[in-house]
Each structure stands twice: as C-alpha cells, then as structure tokens.
UniProtKB/TrEMBL annotation:
Belongs to the V-ATPase H subunit family. Keywords: Hydrogen ion transport, Ion transport, Transport. The gene is VMA13. Subunit of the V1 complex of vacuolar(H+)-ATPase (V-ATPase), a multisubunit enzyme composed of a peripheral complex (V1) that hydrolyzes ATP and a membrane integral complex (V0) that translocates protons. V-ATPase is responsible for acidifying and maintaining the pH of intracellular compartments. This is V-type proton ATPase subunit H. InterPro entries: ARM-like (IPR011989), ARM-type_fold (IPR016024), ATPase_V1-cplx_hsu (IPR004908), ATPase_V1-cplx_hsu_C (IPR011987), ATPase_V1-cplx_hsu_C_sf (IPR038497). V-ATPase is a heteromultimeric enzyme made up of two complexes: the ATP-hydrolytic V1 complex and the proton translocation V0 complex. Residues 382-500 form the ATPase V1 complex subunit H C-terminal domain. The keyword Ion transport applies.
Length: 503
C-alpha cells in the first residue's frame, strides 16, 4: 500500500508473525505438504535479501505455493491448510510480506489470469466467517489489496470477480463508525485499489457501498446531518450562509474549531485527522474522472457544498491540499453545472481567506490560484438572473439579494416564466412540494418568489396554478412557522387582487 499501514493492522500482523507454528507436525497431519514446507522455510524468518533471492529465483514455484497450480493439480498451501486457522493466518501474513517486498511475485501470481483463476484459493477467505473478531477476512483483504495494487492488474478476473468482492468487503470496514481503526483500514486499502481508470470505474459503479460511507464520514466531520437528503442539504447551506456572515475560516468560531481539532487530533464528530485525510485522498483519486462522475457526485451527495464546508474547517495543510485539488478537478471539468453551485456556496470568498494563510506546498499554491482564476472568470460573465437560476437549480433557496429586489423582479419575472419552457417555475414547484422540516426558510422564500411572479406577470397566473403552486401556497398558510405563513399570505393576496381586478 502507498501509505503507512494502520496501527491496528500492523499490531495484528506482528502478533501473528511471532506465533510458533509446529510445521513438522502439520506435515505429519497432512495440513502442509513437504514441498510446501520447504518453500515456506526458505523465506520465513530469514534476511530480506535471502528471502528476495529465494522468491525471484523460483517465481513460478511460489505462485503455485500460494495460488495453486490448476493445470498440474498442485494445491495451494491455503487450500491444504484450510482446517487450521492458525496456519492460514500465518500464511496470509507471510504472503503479504512477500508481496510488499517483491512486486514481481504479484505479477507472477496474476500472470495466469487468462488461463486459470488465480483467486480461487484466496478470494473465498473474504467470507471465512461472520465472526467480527475473525482476522482471516481482514488479512485476506490486505493480501488482495497488495496483490492487485502491486501488479496494477486490470484483467477480466480482477475487474469482474476479485475487485467487486474486495470493494464490498472493504466498504463494510469503512462503515464501522464505532471502530476508527477498521474504518481507516477499509478506506486506505480502497485508496490503494484506485490505481487505474478501470478500477476507479468499478469503485464508482458500486458507490452505494463504496462512496456512501465515505461521504457519511465527511458529513460527520463537517458537522451536518449524515442521513442525506433534505436534512443534509439544509445543514450544508446553513453552514455556507454562516461563512458569508462572518464565521468563515478566518473568523473566531472557525479558528477555535481548527485549534481544537489540532489539539484533539480530530475534527467535527470526532473524526480523526488521519481518517479524514484518507477519505479525502479517495475522493481526490476519483476526481481524476471528474468529467464522467462530477455531476452525479454533486447531485447525489452535495459534494461541492460539502467540500466547501470542509475547506472552511480544514485544520491541516494536507487536507486543504486535497480539498482544493479535488474541487479544481471537479469544477474545471464540469463548469456549466458545478461552477454556479460553487459560487452560491461562497467558495470565491473562502478561497481568498485560504490563500491568505501561509502555505508551504507549492502545488497547493498553484491549485489555489487556478481555482480562483476559474471562479473569477465565471463570475465576471454572470448576471443576477444567472445567479438566481443557479440557486433555484440547486434545489435549495436562501435569502440571497435577488429575492427581495423589486428591480430584479421587474426586469426578470417574465424571463423566469418563459426561460427553457418554464423550467424555473417547475423547479420552484418541486422545491415547494417538500416539507423542509429543518429549514422552513426555503418555503418562505419560495412563497416570496411566487408572489413576485404573480405581481409582475399577472396574466401568467394560470400557468402557475397548473403547476399546483396556488394550492401549495394556500396550504402553507397553515404552517406553524410565522415567516412561512406571512410570505404565503402575501403571495395569495397578490393572486386574489388580480383575480378580483379581472372580474
């Protein structure tokens, strides 16, 4: 793996390495074959150079030792020792050590993938038992991760059989919110598997398993709802709103938050900084395919908002670097769809604050400047109308300047109704149809906007009524929230006024 192994895994492996295995007794019992023991002893508890020479001089022999030889009927030692869990554990640790020290062994094991299944004796161990304390599935996942990442294999056997099963298992580790050690192993090993476009594509194809738990960790770190949907969106937009009102990364609350995170070694929700870094590393790797996944990543997980809030709270330069690089990849490859959300999330102002910090990393400085230039270029050509449409299309409204501007509505109401065959009113109807239990301001703002459209273009009232907006406004007059009741009353008042005038 590319990063240092998590402490929990290292401790487990060290414990297994020190266990005495009665090899001669295992041979007498038929658990290990004589030829297998000969090869094991040639590499077990010997100097690194001796081990390396032994394996490299007999790559095919060690391939058969660990993967088996289907053509000549020779069994893998994992197959022979299947009933002795202590031996299986020891062999898995030994195999991982060899794979890490001798990359050519990984290529040798997978070299036969077109002719036979190199995973037939290893992959089943991922499902060795349902006992959470059984180390065999974890050790197997580590072996498979090292095997695939060192060989950088994209064979059919890997992409269609081994990788999907391995990703599913690692995702169960990433979901272990009560065990940060297992979470970190799951995330870090997932990162090691994203070595090529094909493996990243498979990771994304399984995103309900693979990406969802990572987003949940990020939401916890950002201090917003982890349930997804409306609650999460409301929390993220409130967070960006707070940043706009002076609680940005340079403000008192955020500074206190970052200092606290540095002292405690964690960020929001107790998420460890190392775990946060590894999760961000995976999202950064996925962003290499931003042109293919960027829109869905943002639509399904509100990622631009989430990354912006995390950037506001980022306590370390290494997390800031990954967030900025990921946002740059996403926004530069999805300008039309993601730049509007980034502007509404107050990213340009936040980047100014971030750029004002002292950063030692030249790559971070370059990415920051590119991201700022990209956003500056976008905002220089956008009108207030564009900003309003972008806000509506996010599916979440906030009291931005256009909503209360009589000039804005006088100049743009008709265009809002006619643009793209009425797409904007349809989106407003979609927004208003939700209950917004955790952010009633959205409903108040929507009523304000509907009232403005009726006031400025009264002859289009029937169009709005066909969308169910009049009925919804009337329903909202019974809301417990005072602001919603007031705005709905105002909107309905305009409707009634023009109805009476036309009689």
């Amino acid at each position: 793996m590319s990063a240092e192994a998590p402490t929990y895994l290292t401790a487990l492996q060290n414990n297994i390495r020190t266990r005495p295995i009665p090899w001669d007794g295992a041979v007498r019992a038929g658990t290990v074959l004589e030829w297998q023991l000969t090869k094991i002893r040639a590499v077990d508890k010997v100097k690194k150079d001796v081990r390396k020479q032994a394996v490299e001089s007999d790559l095919d022999g060690y391939r058969i030792l660990f993967a088996g030889g289907a053509n000549d009927g020779q069994p893998s030692v994992l197959q022979s020792a299947a009933r002795r869990t202590d031996v299986v554990q020891y062999i898995l640790v030994l195999l991982n050590d060899l794979l890490e020290a001798i990359p050519s062994l990984a290529k040798a094991i997978l070299a036969t993938a077109k002719k036979e299944d190199p995973y037939r004796n290893i992959l089943p161990l991922l499902a060795h038992s349902n006992n959470a304390d059984d180390p065999i599935p974890l050790l197997t996942a580590t072996v498979l991760t090292t095997l695939l990442s060192n060989a950088r294999d994209e064979s059919k056997a890997t992409l269609e059989r081994a990788l999907p099963a391995l990703l599913s298992y690692l995702s169960t580790l990433a979901q272990q919110s009560t065990d940060a050690g297992l979470q970190d192993i799951g995330v870090l090993e997932s990162s090691s598997l994203l070595y090529g476009r094909a493996t990243r594509k498979q990771f994304w194809a399984q995103r309900s398993e693979t990406v969802a738990p990572l987003i949940k960790i990020l939401r916890t770190a950002a201090g917003v709802s982890t349930s997804g949907g409306e609650d999460t969106a409301a929390g993220l937009w409130r967070a960006t709103g707070n940043g706009h009102n002076g609680s940005s990364a340079s403000g008192g609350d955020a500074v206190t938050s970052r200092i606290g995170a540095l002292l405690e070694g964690s960020i929001g929700g107790g998420v460890g900084l190392q775990l946060l870094y590894h999760v961000l590393l995976v999202l950064w790797q996925l962003s290499f395919d931003a042109a293919d996944i960027g829109d869905d990543l943002n639509e399904e997980y509100d990622f631009v908002l989430l990354a912006t809030q995390l950037l506001r709270l980022s306590p370390k330069e290494k997390t800031t670097r990954l967030l900025v690089a990921t946002l740059l990849n996403l926004l530069s490859n999805n300008r039309a769809t993601l730049l509007p959300t980034a502007v509404l999330a107050r990213l340009p102002a936040l980047l100014k604050n971030v750029a004002g910090r002292q950063h030692a990393d030249p790559d971070l400085q370059d990415d920051l400047q590119q991201l700022r230039d990209l956003l500056d270029e976008y905002t220089a050509t956008k009108t207030t109308f564009d900003e309003y449409v972008a806000e509506v299309n996010t599916g979440h409204l906030r009291w931005s300047p256009p909503h209360r501007s009589t000039v804005f509505w006088a100049e743009n109401a008709r265009r809002i109704l006619d643009e793209d065959n009425g797409a904007i009113p349809r989106k407003l109807a979609e927004i208003m149809a939700k209950p917004w239990d955790n952010d009633k301001a959205v409903l108040a703002i929507a009523c304000n906007d509907i009232g403005a459209l009726v006031r400025e273009v009264p002859e289009k009232r029937s169009t709005l009524e066909k969308l169910g907006l009049k009925t919804r406004v009337m329903q909202l007059m019974g809301e417990a929230d005072e602001a919603v009741r007031w705005e709905s009353l105002q909107a309905l008042g305009g409707w009634l006024k023009y109805s009476f005038e036309t009689k």
